[in-house]
C-alpha cells in the first residue's frame, strides 16, 4: 500500500461487547497482504491477524476477525467479546508497493470499559 | 525466549552525543527492519536488511544515522550528534525470507530514546 488510513483516533467499548476498527488503504497491486497489529501500553507490538488479498474469505483468529472489502480497499477489524486485555493501540499495516517495508496507519486507541 | 530483542530499552542522552542501539532478530529470520515511532503515531520505516546487505533506506535516515548488520545476525543503529527531534521509540522487526509469511514482521520491545 502507498497509504494506510485509520479514521478513528479513539474508540471505547464495554467489556464483553463487540467493536469494529476501521482501516482503508491505497494500492494498485492485485495481490498483497494486510495486517492488524496491537500495541499495549509500554509493551511491544504484536501481530493480531493477517489477510491475503487474493483470498475472498475473511480471516478469523479466535475473537478477532476482519471484514475485507477489496473493491472498496477497506480492511476493518472486529473484536468480539471484548476483554480488558484488549485495551491497546491498534495499527493497520500493509507492505509498500514493490517493497518489503510496512506502511502503518495512524492507529486507533481502544479503551475497554469494565 | 526466541523473540526479537533490543538493547537498551531506554536511553537518555544529551544533545550532540552519539548513541547506538542493538537488535537481535529471531534466529531463523534473515530480514531485519528498523522503524521509528513517535508518540501517538504509527511506526515509520527507516531501513531494511536482507542478511548483511542493507537494501533500502528511508529519506528519514539522515547522514547522522547509520545501520549495520555484520554477518547477517544482529544489527546496530547509530545516531551521531543527537538532536531533540531524534527522541522517539526505535523499533526493530524481523521476518523470514520467502514463503507465505515473508511479509509478516515480528517486532521487538523497542528502545526509547530521550534527547535532553
Kindly describe this structure:
The complex is a heterodimer of chains A (114) and B (116). Chain A is mostly beta strands. Helices cover 0% and strands 52% of the residues of chain A. Chain A contains no helices and 12 strands. In chain A, a hairpin with a 4-residue loop joins strand 8 (64-69) and strand 9 (74-79). The mean pLDDT of chain A is 93. Chain B has 116 residues and is mainly β. Chain B is globular. The N and C termini of chain B lie far apart (33 Å). Classes of the chains: A mainly beta (114), B mainly beta (116). Chain A binds chain B through residues 4, 33, 35, 37, 43-47, 50, 52, 91, 93, 95-96, 99-107, and chain B through 31, 33, 35, 40-45, 48, 50, 55-56, 58, 91, 93, 95, 100, 102-110.
What layout of secondary structure does this protein have?
The complex is a heterodimer of chains A (114) and B (116).
Chain A lengths: L2 E3 L4 E5 L4 E3 L2 E3 L6 E7 L6 E7 L7 E2 L2 E6 L4 E6 L8 E8 L6 E3 L3 E6 L1
Parallel strand pairs in A: 2-12
Antiparallel strand pairs in A: 1-4, 3-9, 5-6, 5-10, 7-8, 8-9, 10-11, 10-12
Chain B lengths: L4 E3 L2 E4 L5 E6 L6 E7 L6 E7 L2 E5 L7 E4 L6 E5 L8 E8 L10 E2 L3 E5 L1
Parallel strand pairs in B: 2-11
Antiparallel strand pairs in B: 1-3, 3-8, 4-5, 4-9, 5-6, 7-8, 9-10, 9-11
Major sheet details of chain A: 6 strands, mixed
Share of β-strand residues of chain B:
over 45%
Radius of gyration of chain B: 14 Å
Report the C-alpha radius of gyration of chain A, rounded: 14 Å
User: Helix count of chain A, per DSSP?
Assistant: 0
Which descriptor suits the 3D outline of chain A?
Answer: globular
Order of helices and strands of chain A: EEEEEEEEEEEE
What helical percentage do the residues of chain B reach? Answer: under 10%
End-to-end separation of chain A: 36 Å
Structural class designation of chain B: mainly beta
Number of contiguous helices of chain B: 0
**Largest interface: which pair?**
A-B, 24 and 27 residues
End-to-end CA span of chain B: 33 Å
Amino acid at each position: 500500500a502507498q497509504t494506510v488510513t485509520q479514521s478513528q483516533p479513539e474508540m471505547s467499548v464495554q467489556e464483553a461487547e463487540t467493536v469494529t476498527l476501521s482501516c482503508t488503504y491505497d494500492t494498485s497491486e492485485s495481490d498483497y497482504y494486510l495486517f492488524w497489529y496491537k500495541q499495549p501500553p509500554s509493551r511491544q507490538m504484536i501481530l493480531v491477524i493477517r489477510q491475503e488479498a487474493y483470498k475472498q474469505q475473511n480471516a478469523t483468529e479466535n475473537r478477532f476477525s476482519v471484514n475485507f472489502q477489496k473493491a472498496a480497499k477497506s480492511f476493518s477489524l472486529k473484536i468480539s467479546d471484548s476483554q480488558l486485555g484488549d485495551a491497546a493501540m491498534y495499527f493497520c499495516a500493509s507492505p509498500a508497493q514493490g517493497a518489503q517495508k510496512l506502511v502503518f496507519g495512524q492507529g486507533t486507541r481502544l479503551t475497554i470499559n469494565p | 525466549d526466541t523473540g526479537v530483542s533490543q538493547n537498551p530499552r531506554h536511553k537518555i542522552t544529551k544533545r550532540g552525543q552519539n548513541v547506538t542501539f542493538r537488535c537481535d532478530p529471531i534466529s531463523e529470520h534473515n530480514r531485519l527492519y528498523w522503524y521509528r515511532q513517535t508518540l501517538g503515531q504509527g511506526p515509520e520505516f527507516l531501513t531494511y536488511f536482507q542478511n548483511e546487505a542493507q537494501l533500502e533506506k528511508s529519506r528519514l535516515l539522515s547522514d547522522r544515522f547509520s545501520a549495520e548488520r555484520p554477518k547477517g545476525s544482529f544489527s546496530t543503529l547509530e545516531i551521531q550528534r543527537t538532536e531533540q527531534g531524534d527522541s522517539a521509540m526505535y523499533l526493530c522487526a524481523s521476518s523470514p525470507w520467502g514463503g507465505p509469511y515473508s511479509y509478516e514482521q515480528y517486532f521487538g520491545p523497542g528502545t526509547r530514546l530521550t534527547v535532553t
